[in-house]
Write a structure and sequence with these properties.
Strand 1 and strand 2 form a beta hairpin. The longest helix has 24 residues. Helix 1 crosses helix 4 and helix 9 runs parallel beside helix 10. The chain is globular, with a radius of gyration of 19 Å. The protein is an alpha/beta fold and 296 residues long. Strands 3-11-10-4-7-5-6 form a 7-stranded mixed beta sheet, with helices on both faces. A two-stranded antiparallel ribbon has the order 1-2. The relative contact order is 0.15. The protein has one domain.
């Protein structure tokens, strides 16, 4: 979230707010931090009009039979959850290999071991749902070193907060502008690269059916999968009703290299979209998509 006055970003204030959030999370009980962060984010639902309306538009495309009241309720809950997401990001500073199991329950970890043992590269693909940063940190703390493709913040000081927090927990950030080359090299060396596959930030994505309507989906996943032969490991870190997180791993798969590149890439995208759709339907209040997915 960025603070703007008359459309102008105020980086100093934004930096101060993130620093304040980090301080509060580290000195008060987590439930109190959730209450503060969720309350502020919930309140922002009423004045952060642009992202609010885009989120509601995205939800309508997913849940065509929902009433406007239900759409608004889900969007309001989504904002509150995003506040908790920010709190969780700074709480990562308290996590280590010894206590991560108290905060996160891992499901199907054997899938991770299977693709790592292959030593042919792993594309850990998630989405803007749940807590993707916590997912990357959990992987690192469990002993799976990885690099994560990240979209930097406009302000260098704010960006340094996020880069530093990830790096201290063993997650190497790959800027979006260098993602293709660095990800390719990492995968060919047998490493793991984490990417998000639901928001195209390059305008060079591929249009595929998404909840029955054409949407522009990032090409990074299918292109890297086809060019490197890396395993694709779908994963989602989602908050449960008891307050803990569950780290879901779906059955890994690989691109079909016996087909031509275009067909193989499209097959990868279609398989990924089915998995993504499942989790959005199950956890719509945790799908933090404040950018248009369906331009039409």
């Amino acid at each position: 979230m960025c603070l703007r006055v008359s459309g102008v970003l105020i980086p100093v204030v934004e930096y101060f707010l993130y620093r304040l959030a980090g301080f509060i999370v580290l000195v008060v009980p987590l439930r109190v931090a959730y209450w503060i962060a969720g309350g502020i984010a919930g309140l922002s639902f009423y004045f952060w009009r642009g992202p609010r309306e885009i989120l509601k538009e995205n939800l309508r495309n997913v849940f065509g039979d929902w009433s406007e009241e239900r759409i608004s309720e889900c969007a309001r809950a989504n904002f509150a959850q995003f506040g908790k997401f920010i709190a969780d990001f700074f709480y990562i500073g308290k996590l280590n290999s010894g206590n991560i199991g108290e905060f996160v329950e891992v499901e199907n970890r054997e899938y991770v071991d299977r693709v790592v043992a292959r030593k042919k590269g792993v594309l850990a693909v998630g989405a803007h749902i749940g807590n993707w940063d916590l997912g990357a940190v959990t992987m690192a703390l469990l002993g799976y070193p990885l690099s994560a493709v990240v979209l930097g913040h406009q302000d260098a000081k704010v960006d340094a907060i996020f880069v530093g927090q990830r790096a201290r927990k063993g997650v190497k950030g790959i800027p979006v502008g260098k993602a293709g080359r660095e990800s390719y090299r990492t995968l060919l060396r047998g490493g793991m690269v984490a990417i998000l596959g639901d928001r195209d930030v390059t305008s060079r994505g591929t249009k595929v059916p998404f909840f029955g309507k054409p949407a522009l989906i990032p090409r990074g996943l299918p292109v890297l999968a086809v060019r490197t032969g890396a395993s694709i490991l779908p994963c989602m870190m989602l908050r449960q009703k008891n307050g803990r997180f569950r780290f879901f791993f779906e059955k890994p798969f690989r691109a079909d290299l016996s087909r031509n590149a275009d067909e193989s890439e499209r097959d990868v995208l279609e398989r990924w979209i089915k998995i993504l759709e499942k989790y959005i339907v199950l956890y719509p209040e945790q799908w933090f998509m404040y950018h248009r997915v369906w331009e039409d």
